[in-house]
Amino acid sequence: MSEHTATPRFEVPGARVLRERARALTGYWWVLLAAGIAWVGAALVILQFDRASVTTVGILVGILFLAAGIENLALARLDVPMRWLWAVFGVLFLVSAALSFADPTDTFAGLADVLGFLFLIVGVWWMVRAFLERAINPLWWTGLISGVLMTGLAFWTSGQFFIHKAYVLLVLAGIWALLQGITSIVRAFAIRAAHETL
Predict the structure, then answer these.
(1) Which residues, in sequence order, are CB contacts of 163 under 8 Å at separation 6+?
(2) How far is CA 85 from CA 1, 79, 108, 136, in A?
(3) Which regions in the chain score pLDDT beneath 70?
(4) Pseudo-torsion of CA 42, 134, 96, 100, nearest 10°?
(5) What was the pLDDT predicted at 38?
(6) CA nearest neighbour of 127 among 109, 103, 145, 153
(7) pTM of the predicted model over 0.90
(8) pLDDT in tens, 5-57
(9) Helix/strand/coil (H, E, C) string of the chain?
């Protein structure tokens, strides 16, 4: 055996600690998977409503905003650049949830009026988040595509009459939840792949 093969490999100081912390953090990929499955389940429930009461619609939309707010605030706790942006959007989602829970009946009419604006906020955030994750997520483009689709839905919704907005509110909320669920599931498997690589 030569002395070159017996010498230890050169390793950057602190790289092992960083790798272990990254592996520990990516070990929670299943939380994002569970959130994605919950989003898809919520989408299926919303899209199945035939004659749901207006109150139920207001509460379900409030729950969707609450989940998005909690998810974004949890992501804001990560030590990454521009994490404050996740916190800002998390607070915006939580404010939307509080308004939805305050009066679900009036929330339905109010959401129908401002649905396009709310979907625009969500679509823009998904596109911003996709570009923020571009360096670390090889599937960043799925978030970008979801954001573009959501932005298109926002402009389409804004051009509808109130009666039509009320009828499509369930469908659009279901599509929003479905896109969020699919994006979260894809992101979870990307994190799982990174975990196995580490």
Answers:
(1) none
(2) 55, 12, 28, 17
(3) 1-13, 49-54, 162-168
(4) -10
(5) 87
(6) 145
(7) no
(8) 555 555 566 778 788 887 888 888 888 899 999 888 877 777 776 555 567 77
(9) CCHHHHCCCCCCCCHHHHHHHHHHHHCCHHHHHHHHHHHHHHHHHHHHCCCCCHHHHHHHHHHHHHHHHHHHHHHHCCCCCCHHHHHHHHHHHHHHHHHHHHCHHHHHHHHHHHHHHHHHHHHHHHHHHHHHCCCCCCCHHHHHHHHHHHHHHHHHHHCCCHHHHHHHHHHHHHHHHHHHHHHHHHHHHHHHHHHHHC
Q: What is the pLDDT of residue 19?
A: 80
Answer whether 82's CB lies under 8 Å from 129's CB.
Answer: no
Sequence spans of domains, the chain: 38-197
Of 90, 121, 100, 11, the C-alpha closest to 54 is 100
Give the pLDDT score at 98.
Answer: 92
